[in-house]
Specification:
The chain is α+β, with helices and mostly antiparallel strands. It folds into 6 domains: about 5-130, no CATH class; about 135-250, TATA-Binding Protein (2-Layer Sandwich), CATH 3.30.310; about 265-370, no CATH class; about 390-465, no CATH class; about 470-575, no CATH class; about 580-690, Winged helix-like DNA-binding domain superfamily/Winged helix DNA-binding domain (Arc Repressor Mutant, subunit A, Orthogonal Bundle), CATH 1.10.10.10. The strands form 7 sheets. A 10-stranded antiparallel sheet has the order 2-3-6-7-1-12-11-10-8-9, with helices on both faces. Helix 17 (about 520-530) links the parallel strand 21 and strand 22 (about 535-540). Helix 5 (about 70-85) packs across helix 7, helix 19 crosses helix 20 (about 630-640) and helix 20 packs across helix 21 (about 645-665).
Length: about 700
């Protein structure tokens, strides 16, 4: 089927009289299915022909005109263009519906230059201002084939009839279904809510109301090859209804189409304009972004509209890595007769809206190539930078801090708050789409910003969250890292926390923690505050890309003091510091042969003097660890001239173990394990993870 899904709308087709359809086909060419029925065809025959025949380019344009100009907004655009070009309104059949009016213009402009000018101007206006037809996509839990299509179509009609009757949508439901190369299409024609507009009745001078129930034609398309459902519904409120009903009808599972989100805009946050380069889609040229909604937390929603949004982002230095893009409007050039760019609006997690519906397939290809549609699966990286302004439910903080979360709440680093907006449970990737509005009863109502996501009642528990307190985090990190000094005033807004000085041997290093991406000029600021001392910047994110600063990349937001010190030694190229400060994570025994020092579990064993038998005993076993060392080799290493067997090695071991136990006791710690047990016959080995320099 070559006709784009969004054009397959029986209600629009039936708005055009049969005689006018006959004029259209006489002008643009008859479809094969209708050629033998030129005088007898019906609207149902037109619909059937669209299902089976490939439309010509001219017929596609005629159908596009019905959908773009055949509306009230389209009619206003036509009249405005006619007035602008001083074309009399009576040139077209004025006393007709909007669809008829647009069809008459399409036919007339093909042979009338003045009306062709009107046509082009009206299209330009509608292209920018019309509320284009949208569709939503959902992924099933698995790709499954539909069996017994006719029975499923009848079951769908029964389900929708019941829903319409219960929801005051009337009792008229018709379902057509067909399969095309593994794609199953369900065409649902149904009534909607009763309307009673005030009108001037024909032949009467008084006003009155006209009661009628509008007809909505909705399209559901299920691609069995990939398990994807596309819903093009006239009323956005029906999207979720169809999603549940079709899952139940086709696969006896109401939540069948609740899989991974179809649309994700993270690639644009991560790559910027580079995401549009080398897309590789034939027939598509330049791509650019003209609108976007950027959400940060539950309070900030920034709407950018520009000829090039990424230019504005760069000029304003907006940190797109924080928060998330929830909606974008893209424009792209496409090869064809029309010079107008195609516009596509994407609203995460499921909505796609296309301006020129004939290019629906190429839009799908482009969005897929860009990584927006059907994004690669994988866990989204969460770090402190991306969570700014740091107002999130407890489960988000637990993903970041893990088991430390409760402790941070007790310390006041995370403070209980209530959110102003939250995501929908079924559409987490759609952003904070439910605005919490307080009710007189003390409860809340979540008013949805997206028409396809229903509003719902909220409890105070739904809004419970935690907010990060930067100053309390600074105090906690100072205690954790054992730093001294430091200013309580954040630098460069709230990006940097001054943690003061940390001692690395005899060297003092000024330590700063980066809560967000450091601004330009941070290096000069840190140098001034360090006042000649060495300095380092702790970065709890993999997003940092600068090179002007001595940066310590911490894998966790709350690194241990030891890992920070090791990073400082490596980053600041500190030479001459004791080996304990550069020993790998998890090391228990450190032997520094340059300074003649030994540490066990971070405590210096002062009794082990360099050059003594106990020191050399520990050094030899540490170097060989985890291999065993024979008594003979140890004796030769400690005192090769002695001839008293293994006495020297045994005495060295006992002395080394006693020095370690005494040092631990003086520090108020117990150490009752044997770090150098016997191994095999006449051998010793070191059972502590060792590091020797």
């Amino acid at each position: 089927m070559q006709l784009p899904l969004a054009y397959f709308d029986a209600s629009v087709i039936e708005e055009v009289p049969i005689d006018l359809w006959r004029q259209v086909f006489d002008d643009v060419g008859w479809l094969a299915t209708l050629d033998s029925k030129r005088q007898t065809f019906t609207h149902a025959d037109v619909l059937d022909a669209f299902e089976h025949d490939d439309p010509t380019d001219d017929l596609l344009q005629a159908i596009e005109v019905l959908h773009t100009l055949g509306t009230e907004a389209g009619r206003d655009a036509i009249v405005s263009a006619m007035n602008d070009r001083r074309v009399p309104l009576e040139t077209l059949a004025a006393s007709t519906g909007s669809a008829e009016f647009a069809t008459h213009l399409f036919l007339a402009q093909r042979s009338d230059a003045s009306l062709a000018d009107v046509f082009a101007r009206a299209q330009a206006q509608v292209q920018e201002g019309a509320d284009h037809r949208r569709y939503n996509e959902f992924v099933g839990t698995e790709a499954r084939v539909v069996t017994n299509l006719n029975a499923k179509a009848e079951a769908l009609r029964g389900e929708m009839l019941r829903y319409c009757q219960e929801s005051d949508l009337g009792d008229h439901v018709q379902v057509r279904a067909f399969e095309n190369d593994g794609t199953y299409v369900f065409h649902v024609i149904r009534g909607h809510r009763v309307r009673k507009p005030l009108a001037v009745l024909p032949g009467r001078s008084v006003r009155g109301t006209i009661e009628y129930r509008p007809v909505h034609a909705d399209l559901l398309q299920y691609d069995a090859a990939v398990g994807r459902l596309r819903i093009a519904a006239r009323a956005a409120s029906m999207v979720e209804v169809y999603c549940h009903v079709l899952g139940r009808v086709l696969f006896d599972d109401e939540m069948f189409f609740a899989g991974e989100p179809v649309c994700n805009l993270k690639v644009l946050q991560e790559k910027g304009r580079a995401a549009f380069e080398d897309h590789g889609v034939p027939g598509v040229g330049r791509v650019w972004m003209t609108e976007c909604l950027w959400e940060r937390g539950d309070r900030d929603l920034l709407h950018i509209r520009s000829t090039d949004c990424f230019r504005n982002v760069e000029e304003l230095r907006l940190p797109l890595s924080e928060g998330q893009l929830v909606q974008v409007k893209l424009k792209f050039e496409v090869v064809g007769k029309s010079t107008r760019p195609v516009t596509v609006t994407v609203r995460a997690p499921s909505r796609i809206e296309v301006s020129q519906k004939r290019h629906e397939r190429i839009v799908d290809q482009l969005l897929t190539k860009l990584g927006i549609r059907n994004p690669p699966r994988g866990d989204t990286e969460i770090d402190l930078w991306s969570l700014h302004p740091w107002r999130h439910p407890a489960q988000v903080w637990r993903m970041l801090f893990g088991s430390d979360t409760d402790m941070l709440v007790q310390c006041g680093v995370l403070v209980p708050i209530q959110l102003d907006a939250i995501p929908s449970r079924q559409h987490i990737d759609g952003g904070h789409v439910l605005d919490a509005q307080p009710l007189p009863s003390g409860e809340f109502y979540g008013v949805s910003r997206a028409p396809e996501i229903p509003s719902r009642s909220l409890s105070s528990t739904d809004l419970d969250a935690l907010k990060l307190d930067p100053e309390q985090l600074r105090l906690y990190l100072r205690s954790r890292f054992e730093t001294t000094g430091g200013s309580a005033t954040p630098w460069a807004g709230d990006e940097l926390l001054d943690l003061g000085l940390i001692k690395v041997g005899d060297v003092s290093v000024h330590l700063t923690y980066s809560l967000r991406q450091p601004p330009r000029g941070t290096g000069n600021t840190l140098r001034m505050c360090a006042a000649g001392e060495s300095f380092a910047l702790l970065v709890p994110s993999s997003r940092y890309s600068g090179s002007e600063l001595p940066v310590v990349m911490v894998g966790r937001c709350l690194p241990s003091r030891g890992s920070v010190v090791r990073g400082i030694v490596a980053t600041c190229a500190l030479t001459g510091v004791p080996a304990v400060f550069s020993a790998p994570e998890g090391t228990r025994l450190v032997v520094d042969t340059r300074h003649g020092q030994v540490w066990v579990d971070g405590l210096e064993i002062s009794g082990l003097r360099p050059g003594s038998h106990p020191f050399r005993f520990v050094e030899t076993l540490a170097k060989k660890s985890p291999a065993v060392v024979s008594m003979k080799d140890l004796t030769d290493e400690l005192s090769g001239a002695r001839k008293d067997g293994d006495t020297t090695a045994r005495q060295a071991k006992l002395a080394a173990k006693k020095h370690i136990s005494d040092a631990m006791a003086r520090a108020g710690r117990t150490f009752d394990e044997d770090p150098f047990p016997s191994a095999q016959t006449g051998c010793y080995r070191c059972v502590l993870v060792a590091y020797v320099v």
